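Show me any protein, keeping tokens residue-aligned.
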Amino acid sequence: MKCECGADYREVTEVRSFRIHGHDVTVNANLLRCAACEHAIWTPGQADAVRKQVWNAVRDREGR
């Protein structure tokens, strides 16, 4: 996949933090980042996966 700058996106794993209903949650998230300009995007599958990770972390923290 090509970025608007013309370079290729590459899949990376980054530590990302989210705030969900007052909870700060940090997960390792897969996303696409441009090799040249560093622009980041999520594919629908990556977005779904990180959403599940975040909610599972909230559930685990609350003991559910």
Observations:
- The first strand starts at residue 9 and ends at 20.
